[in-house]
Prior knowledge:
alpha+beta, two-stranded antiparallel sheet, 3 helices, 39% helix
Amino acid sequence: xxxxxxxxxxxxxxxxxxxxxxxxxxxPTAFGLVMSTEDLLDPFLGLFPYEAQLRQVLDQQLARWxxxx
Length: 69
């Protein structure tokens, strides 16, 4: 949830062990399971690109901790 609300970035999510991703995708067919041969992009990386997410988190932290005049 913190990634979606831009409260925390990818570093917190991945290094904290809160995010799991699977690299193997199987397609069920009438003959059994077939492994996908395509490289699939992680859908969350498409929705929340690392650089944009980091920029939002840093801007939010700067606004929070910067001295107000």
